[in-house]
Amino acid sequence: MNILTFDIEDWYNVDFVTQDFNWDKYEVRIYNGVDRILERLERDKITATFFCLGWLAEKHPNIIKRIDKLGHHIGCHSYQHQLAFRFTPEEFRLDTEKAKKLIEDAIGKEINAFRAPGFSITKNNLWALDILIQLGFKYDCSLFPAKHDYGGYPDYGTVGPSILKLPSGFIKEFPINFHQILGKNLVFSGGGFFRLFPYWLIKRWSENSKYLMTYFHPRDFDPDQPIFESQKGFRKFKSYVGLKNSFSKFNQYLDDFEFIDIEKADTLVNWDKIKSLEVNFE
Length: 282
Ligand SMILES: [Zn+2]
Hints:
The protein has about 280 residues and is an alpha/beta fold. The chain has a single domain (about 1-280), classed as TIM Barrel. Helices cover about 35% and strands about 15% of the residues. It contains 10 helices and 12 strands. The strands form 4 sheets. A 5-stranded mixed β-sheet has the order 5-6-8-7-12, covered by helices on one side. A 3-stranded parallel β-sheet has the order 2-3-4. A hairpin with a 2-residue loop joins strand 9 (about 180) and strand 10. Helix 4 packs parallel to helix 5. It binds zinc ion. Zinc ion (ZN) binds near residues 7, 9, 77 and 81.
């Protein structure tokens, strides 16, 4: 099962660069970035899940409307890309509620899927999943099912969909997948590592994955984006490596593999056979 998802955020909507959220000063590149993706998907009638920032729904609602009109599945990617584990439970609830409402107002319908920025629901803030259930979300895609720089959730146990049981009910989890190399868990199906590694390797790792969860951003395909000089070292390298060829690589990826969105994936998973996981948190 290969799932196609995008995180809809502009090149400057990244909270690890700066904690300054005065974003109106930056050049808006998201319209072209999203159009490029939508045109490609239209060509082969592929539908995907688009996790959108509430901030974008507030400032540029037409982008979200356009994605929705083409029949894609819309999800929520927080209000302004703050990592979930930086919030208290109450702050997380307010942020998510605000973003959800802005996106729903833009498209005129309820949304049911969530992805936290940077896989930031970890073993240390699993309460966030309970809040998502309370807010009416059916699907979560925030978990990194192994050890990760931010903590991840190694107890998850498998790399594939699961039903997570929490005090407020349950939620269907579609985590990210990874490839293990030299003891490191590399996420290759999106972002920096998709751009960094040669396509034949991405293809081979993808063929060896029974479950593939991609995550692309419009900026992954934009070689002309301005560069944040304040980024340093590997972080900077990872942000800007391989931008020139990434869109043709992405095109090839869509040619070589069949992709579906999360709602479609939900109908294909045999949930009776999937182990559910009791999630405990403090
Ligand atoms: Zn993001």
